[in-house]
Amino acid sequence: RSAEMAKLTQLIDNEVFRAYATYAVIVLLKMMLMSLITAYFRITRKAFVNPEDTAVFGKGESAKKNLRTDPDVERVRRGHLNDLENIVPFLGIGLLYALSGPELSTALLHFRIFAGARIVHTFAYLIPLPQPSRGLSWAVGYTVTILMAYRVLKTALYL
Amino acid sequence: RSAEMAKLTQLIDNEVFRAYATYAVIVLLKMMLMSLITAYFRITRKAFVNPEDTAVFGKGESAKKNLRTDPDVERVRRGHLNDLENIVPFLGIGLLYALSGPELSTALLHFRIFAGARIVHTFAYLIPLPQPSRGLSWAVGYTVTILMAYRVLKTALYL
Amino acid sequence: RSAEMAKLTQLIDNEVFRAYATYAVIVLLKMMLMSLITAYFRITRKAFVNPEDTAVFGKGESAKKNLRTDPDVERVRRGHLNDLENIVPFLGIGLLYALSGPELSTALLHFRIFAGARIVHTFAYLIPLPQPSRGLSWAVGYTVTILMAYRVLKTALYL
User: In which broad location class does this protein mainly occur, judging by the first location in its UniProt entry (chains A, B, C) (predicted)?
Assistant: First the structure.
């Protein structure tokens, strides 16, 4: 068993793979933060979607009026969905890219720019900053993912 | 080729990795089940969103009245989206955690609690159970994912 | 370091893993395309959801009337969400399947049918084609994913 473990540990000891692991966890934690921000706005704005969530406010009309949409809640939810749409491709393509044997410095550059772009995107969406802040930060993360996908296909293509 | 295969098979032979594979597949199958439940409610409640889906009910008004939202359909869809938001982080972080060389018993504990929490969450959402059932089951899965993320960063951090 | 690299490269040199990498990147790029199609329809239909996105059209009423939903935009968004719901399970289950040591020809068959089904699904959704085109293409991709999940559990099950 320890021989197998050693082999697995070699994967996590590889510097490119460690860099991938680090930035994958960072962007996933950032995405998970959106759940907490949604919950925060739902509670402070009293804007719920499930009847059972408003039971704490009593029954009848007083609870019912908390079943509503709120612009701030919807904004965080759109940011969360945009994260899913962009971080899922990064997770899959980034993993394969890390296994395709890129230079450490090149890999770090891709991972850092992607993570940075997604963090800027979140601020641009939630504050919100005037456009094209959000559009540009989205485009940077998108482009980095395409570049990594190109490298994976060039290295691994097997149709 | 068989030498390469042997190396790959070592990964799937590792007990921690096998445990990850098992629970990752379980939560993904659970998530996929939401599609079937949505389809079931759409058909039994006659609540569709695409005009081409109602063609079986004839043309004109008789079909058009089936283009509507239904509370049960929307509830399953919210459960499905919540699965995506929480199972995607588990897939990515759990894989890296499994490769970070944790104790088998510790890893099993994390995977089992996460999978159990997501199954309880689905029942709490669909029945629905009174709060805080759904909130608590969500928080348990969320916390387990954060704990695994901490372990990955402690083992692999490479900024 | 080069010895570790060699081991990693063995993973990407394995033909089944290369096939997985190729088709995973293809379906992820296809999913990412949905973002561009959404942006295209939002701009040509002038149908935005964030006030800051309409600032280019001036202020006041002239910009405000572009804050609206459009059937074509909503259709692409539904296709995008359906991609997320189905491609996430493929990414996770397909990776574990590729590591479970399947025959190359069997693995290729699964990956090709899944990718083909999702591409047909997108055309069926966006044109749109009459049902059951979209339903069938969805079911084919779903079934292939279930078959791979069965193989992973048979090979790796460790509860």
Answer: endoplasmic reticulum
Residue C148 CA to its chain's centroid (Å): 17
How large a percentage of chain C has pLDDT more than 70?
A: 94
Q: What is the pTM of this model?
A: 0.94
In chain A, what are the domain boundaries? Answer: 1-157
Residues C71-94 pLDDT 10s: 999 999 999 999 999 999 999 999
A contacts of C29 (beta carbons < 8 Å): 89, 146, 149
Q: A114 with A144: CB under 8 angstroms?
A: yes
CB contact under 8 Å between C55 and A158, yes or no, is no
Which ipTM was obtained for this model? 0.92
Q: Pick C96's closest partner by Cβ from B9, B25, B84.
A: B25
* Average pLDDT of span A152-157: 94
Q: Is B73 helix (H, G, I), strand (E, B) or coil?
A: helix
CA distance linking residue C39 with residue C37, whole number of Å: 5
The yes or no reply on domain A1-157 and CATH 1.20.120.550 is: yes
CA distance, residue A57 to nearest chain C CA (Å): 31
